[in-house]
Design a protein that fits this description.
Layout (H helix, E strand, L loop, with lengths): L17 H19 L3 H13 L3 H29 L1 H21 L3 H29 L2 H11 L1 H21 L4 H23 L33 H6 L1 H30 L5 H15 L2 H12 L1 H21 L3 H14 L2 H48 L3 H20 L13
Helix pairs in contact: 1-5, 1-7, 1-8, 2-7, 2-8, 2-10, 3-4, 3-5, 3-15, 4-5, 4-8, 5-15, 6-12, 6-15, 7-8, 7-11, 10-11, 10-15, 10-16, 11-14, 12-13, 12-15, 13-14, 13-15, 13-16, 15-16
């Protein structure tokens, strides 16, 4: 029997599989959701703090408001994407994220900035989670880790944009107005990507008469994770033991990395005597190098297994955070930055790949949404607690040490306990 058109992969000479177009759009959605909406704050923070006379606790709280918005939306984003399709959810969410960025710069009060950061987080969740879930719909299991690793490079593109762009915009606009101009420019970028997704994004390969890239009839998870053959729906996802194990590990990543990513530039400017442009250059270089981090570790996980990838990444990130917190000298900045850049976005890539491995393409967005709730809780707590520690100790160095300890003990240690051959059937009763 011949394959139906819905399962026939087009392979005409010179024709690019549409999955690669979708991958570019996924990267763009991540670029807005995280690279601009979340990490743009890192570059804008020093000027914003000086202009608004914010305490360290308030600067941490603003990032936490962004992450609370993300956390409050993330599970619904996955469910809505499974029900209505990722394209609609991603498009609307990126518009909300752009609006949040505009409000952050437009409303001249701390309360207004809180609302703007919250909305940017809401839009970020709705843009990022369904976008990463699309990887499972467009890439077969043998290419999924690599594709997910490529997709998270959108965060790196954000660092590469904001690293040099933000200092220039602040110089153009002046100390008191430049940081507001930054948010207007970032919000405009978000609107542009939303329009592209509305017109070009597609929910599944089958919609265009294609097979997912790299799919074959006898694919099996290379990492040893057993994919569920007969998904039982959202309730089965919720009851999966492996899902909640992954969620707790994801919490450790959210808590630790967000402390580093939020306060890195501020630490360099305020405590390491870097100029704003020099700190922006380091942030830019992290973005350049980190662009291959998810790609590299996704490929490693395809070859050697997701567990090996998780343990390795957490161990290296722990070293990055601890070096910056313990060694107060310029070489420590470069060593720490290099280690972080090499691993920066690999954990989200591995979690997206694992969600597809265990739960299949249809339920992957819901599974990723659920584990991201716990991840988001870690992100929301991290900056707030780091601000408290910094105000108490007059430095962010102890907060970086805390982040390193959590990454090592909770992240790497918890990853060692991942049981590779566990699927959705692993639930009580």
């Amino acid at each position: 029997m011949q394959d139906s058109p819905a399962h026939r992969e087009i392979s005409q000479p010179g024709r690019i599989h549409y999955g690669y177009v979708v991958l570019v759009l996924i990267i763009s959605a991540v670029f807005v959701s995280l690279g601009l909406g979340r990490f743009g704050y890192t570059s804008v923070l020093p000027a914003m703090q000086d202009s608004m006379k914010l305490t360290n606790v308030q600067t941490g709280a603003l990032q936490s408001w962004n992450l609370v918005g993300y956390l409050s939306t993330v599970v619904f984003a996955g469910m809505l994407a499974s029900r209505f399709g990722p394209r609609v959810v991603i498009t609307v969410s990126l518009l909300v994220a752009g609006a949040g960025m505009f409000i952050t710069g437009l409303v001249p009060t701390y309360g207004g900035a809180q609302i703007g950061r919250f909305l940017a987080g809401v839009g970020g969740a709705g843009g990022n989670v369904p976008a990463m879930g699309l990887v499972s719909a467009w890439f077969g299991i043998k290419r999924r880790g690599l594709a997910a690793g490529t997709a998270v490079a959108g965060s790196s593109v954000g660092l590469m944009f904001t690293g040099p762009l933000v200092p220039w915009l602040i110089e153009v606009g002046g100390a008191d107005r430049g940081w507001r101009l930054c948010w207007y420019v970032l919000g405009t970028m978000a609107f542009a990507v939303a329009i592209l997704c509305a017109f070009l994004l597609r929910n599944r390969a089958e919609e265009m008469g294609l097979k997912p890239i790299g799919e074959s009839n006898n694919n099996s998870p290379n990492a040893g994770v057993r994919q569920t053959q007969s998904p039982g729906g959202f309730r089965e996802v919720w009851r999966s033991r492996v899902l909640w194990h992954l969620a707790t590990i994801y919490f450790a990543f959210g808590f630790s990395y967000i402390i580093y990513a939020t306060f890195f530039v501020r630490y360099l400017v305020k405590e390491m005597n870097f100029g704003a442009s020099d700190a922006g250059t380091v942030w830019f270089l992290i973005g350049v190098v980190s662009g291959v981090s998810g790609f590299f570790w996704g490929a490693i996980s395809d070859r050697w297994g997701r567990r090996a990838g998780l343990v390795s990444v957490f161990a290296l990130q722990s070293c990055s955070f601890l070096v910056l917190g313990v060694w107060h000298d310029t070489p420590a900045v470069w060593i720490s930055a290099a280690l972080f850049a090499l691993t920066a976005w690999s954990i989200p890539a591995l979690m997206a790949a694992l969600s597809g491995d265990v739960f299949g393409p249809k339920l992957a967005p819901s599974a990723l949404g659920l584990i991201t709730i716990v991840f988001g809780a870690g992100q929301a707590i991290g900056p707030w607690l780091a601000g408290r520690v910094a105000d108490a100790t007059k430095s962010f160095a102890p907060a970086f040490v805390l982040a390193g300890a959590i990454a090592l003990v909770w992240g790497a240690g918890g990853s060692l306990l991942v049981r590779p051959k566990t699927g959705m059937s692993s639930h009580p009763g």
